[in-house]
Design brief:
Length: about 550
């Protein structure tokens, strides 16, 4: 007998809506954003934020560009009360920013809330009560009329207090809490009643916030609820319809996106999604989703590392390495084929072309990440990633044939080492494998005579120095002949490539050589100011490997 029994749950009862229009809508404009980090996010923390942390977080929210910031629940928390007072008394709220505070629809709490807001330039008073069937029947033990009355009384109280402080620019906000668990017709009825009290106008709108306090269905059902609500509520044109989704089914962002398509104007959420249980809707993800579609999110998220650092410092929660757009690994490719595709696309990408890079929905540099992080090499990586790293970090443009040779060496190293092979280790591995032009023999003095046929005379320095000489068609061929004759080997150069490493007076060149020596293949690499010296040293490197 198991307690894992799905029959104890009942499916969500969707609202019936005909000819829904939201599936054909597109998000082409940013919503009004409201951050609830300092209220809903804070309420969900194991250790609520200190005043200092709230100050730091508030500064971040202002810099990111929020114009509406829910700063706390001052009637429920002395710390929140003090923080609101500090913001107002110290004049910390920019003129174009509304601070928002939450209160339950209870007269004594509303009174205390207004106390906290004395002297504010602009404020949103956010009043809520629960309207769902579950809460009505089991928590409040009230019928629909009783619940509606709480909302209406709260709305009246909010209005009365505001009238006593005309020096503040007030905006009223109402949330039928647990909206997703409320019969949508009843939510409309309660909101109509609240709007009748507040009497908004097109120039003085009220905010109606529809929360998925608990996410209970697929996002399309939520969008249906929003479209239905917008169609049926009485004073739609006098309202800003706001959404406040939570992430219980993992679809908080999707629900907000579809809800926006269904007619909402405003979105509440938190940076990186902290919030009750599985979190609030993540504003970073939703805004970056818009950004990646060419829509200005009207928030500045370019300094992602600062956002992460402040959020982590204030919430004491770590950002997951796979968190969309922000996690440490979200722009990183380990797989060889992905690395190869990214490398090719990045090489094609120019500033004048729309972004079109396989596996990278956005340009990592837009959020302060570097291309170095894009390609990280481990035992699953292929030659593309290895070549990319060596080129980016050290300017080594490995020819394809050498990439093919080097890749299994790196993979083997990664398997033994068990992790990511950083650029430095990769360079060392490269040098140890191919830049073997000094042991057992090193190139000493040499001269090259160019004629119909080229002649090389060279000294090799080792445990005992040797003189070699040979002829050939070009320096490489002459030097290979000289080496072959001296050591009794047959040396055929199969591949050769060179390129400049640096520009300017101390420009260096790198030569890559692949030689077949007595039937075995060896790869040699050498760097020198002079390309001929680099080339013959690369040949010597192959012979040294054969001797070793
Ligand atoms: O999740 C919720 O319903 C809330 C309300 C107070 C808006 O946080
Ligand atoms: Zn919430």
């Amino acid at each position: 007998m198991t307690s894992f029994d799905h029959t104890k749950y009942t499916p969500f009862q969707p609202v019936v809506i005909e000819n829904r229009t939201w599936p054909d809508q597109e998000i082409t404009k940013a919503p009004i954003w409201s951050s609830v980090d300092l209220r809903d996010g804070n309420q969900a923390l194991v250790e609520p934020m200190t005043v200092e942390q709230k100050k730091q977080f508030f500064a971040l929210l202002v810099d990111v560009g929020f114009k509406e910031i829910e700063v706390g629940f001052p009637a429920a928390s002395q710390l929140d009360f003090d923080f609101v007072r500090w913001l107002i008394e110290e004049n910390k709220v920019p003129d174009d920013v509304y601070i928002q505070v939450l209160t339950q629809a209870r007269p004594e709490l509303i009174a205390r809330t207004y106390e906290s807001l004395k002297g504010a330039k602009k404020a949103i008073v956010h009043v809520y009560n629960s309207t769902s069937k579950t809460q009505r029947e089991q928590v409040f033990r009230l019928g629909k009329d009783g619940i509606k009355e709480i909302a209406v009384k709260g709305a009246e109280c909010v209005k009365e207090h505001a009238a006593k402080h005309p020096e503040t620019e007030w905006v009223f906000q109402y949330s039928p809490e647990s909206f997703t668990g409320t019969e949508t017709d009843f939510a409309v009825e309660v909101v109509n009643a609240v709007a009748d009290v507040w009497q908004p106008t097109p120039d003085n709108k009220i905010i109606i916030n529809l929360p998925a306090t608990v996410e209970v269905a697929t996002p399309n059902r939520f969008a249906d609820q929003i479209e239905y609500f917008c169609r049926n509520v009485k004073q739609r044109d006098n309202m800003i319809i706001s959404l406040h989704t939570h992430n219980d089914r993992g679809c908080g962002v999707a629900a907000a996106e579809l809800g926006l398509m269904a007619g909402a104007d405003r979105i509440e959420g938190t940076l990186l999604g902290n919030g009750e249980r599985t979190g609030n809707m993540d504003v970073v993800t939703m805004a970056m989703n818009m950004y990646s579609q060419g829509v200005d999110p009207e928030l500045v998220l370019s300094d992602m590392d600062r956002i992460i650092s402040v959020v982590q410092a204030c919430t004491l929660l770590q950002v997951h390495p796979r968190h969309p757009y922000a996690g440490e690994l979200v722009f990183t490719a380990f797989s060889g084929s992905h690395q190869d595709a990214i490398k090719k696309c990045l090489a094609n990408q120019t500033a004048d072309k729309p972004w079109d890079v396989a596996y990278l929905p956005i340009d990592p540099t837009d959020v302060g990440r570097s291309y170095q992080e894009v390609i990280r090499v481990n035992s699953q990586s292929g030659k593309g990633g290895i070549a990319y790293t060596l080129e980016q970090e050290y300017g080594l443009a490995l020819p394809r044939w050498l990439q093919v040779e080097f890749s299994p060496i790196v993979q083997k190293f990664a398997e033994i080492d068990g992790g990511v092979v950083d650029a430095q280790s990769m360079k060392k591995l490269f040098e140890d494998s191919f830049m073997t032009g000094s042991t057992p023999y090193q190139l000493g003095k040499y001269d090259l005579t160019k004629d119909d046929i080229d002649t090389v005379n060279a000294e090799l320095i080792g445990s005992e120095n040797v003189q070699i000489s040979g002829n050939g068609n070009g320096a490489l061929s002459a030097f290979s002949t000289a080496l072959g004759e001296h050591f009794g080997m047959r040396i055929d150069i199969i591949q050769y490539q060179e390129h400049a490493l640096t520009v300017g007076s101390d420009a260096q060149a790198i030569a890559y050589v692949q030689a077949n020596i007595d039937g075995d293949r060896f790869n040699g690499v050498a760097i020198h100011n002079d390309i001929v010296s680099a080339s013959i040293q690369a040949v010597l490197a192959t012979v040294n490997q054969k001797i070793a």
